[in-house]
Specification:
This protein is α/β, with parallel strands linked by helices. The chain has one domain. It contains five helices and six strands; from the N terminus they run ααβαβαββββα. Strands 3-2-1-6 form a four-stranded parallel beta sheet. A two-stranded antiparallel sheet has the order 4-5. The longest helix is centred in the N-terminal third of the chain and has 25 residues. The termini are far apart.
């Protein structure tokens, strides 16, 4: 019971950290349009999954609020590896600033800018990931030439290779 209360308090602190970060770094509406935010239950579930499965390697496709949870996780689990790919350059720069100001500076190496080519991330890796979190791209991905989809043939092949 006490463990659950501590975990809820930690989640509450992360949510408040995100609100502060959002206000300070992200709320520039000229460049970034608002992205729908997931409900608090989702973040509790994500923390629970990470605590239970204890993945050693995490790939996140689309940086954002979830990145804060993954950074907090790998800060506690030093033997874990994390890569977050972001296709929107201004958002990528903001994520770098957030990580640099709130976590260990070496963790900025986890944030990678990755263009979208032919409907999907231009990312190649032979590494297998224990946990893949898909939060982009989608039809609101700020792409001028094409509308990328999460169910594209390239995306499906990408996930087949990673499993």
């Amino acid at each position: 019971m006490i463990y659950r209360l501590i975990r809820l308090f930690q989640i509450y602190k992360i949510i408040n950290l995100y609100k502060i970060i959002y206000k300070k770094y992200i709320s520039n509406k000229f460049f970034i349009s608002p992205w729908r935010e997931k409900p608090n239950n989702f973040w509790i579930l994500l923390n629970f999954i990470l605590d239970q499965k204890k993945p050693k390697s995490i790939l996140e496709l689309g940086s954002g609020k979830s990145s804060l949870y993954f950074f907090k996780y790998i800060s506690k689990n030093k033997d874990s590896k994390f890569i977050t790919l972001e296709h929107h350059y201004l958002w990528y720069r903001k994520q770098l600033k957030i990580v640099k100001n709130n976590f260990e500076k070496k963790l900025t190496n986890c944030v990678k800018f990755c263009k979208i080519i032919n409907d999907w991330y231009d990312f190649n890796s032979d590494e297998k990931f224990d946990f893949i979190f898909l939060d982009g791209p989608n039809q609101n991905s700020f792409l001028k030439k094409n509308k990328s989809k999460r169910d594209s043939k390239i995306a499906i092949n990408f996930f087949k290779k990673k499993n």
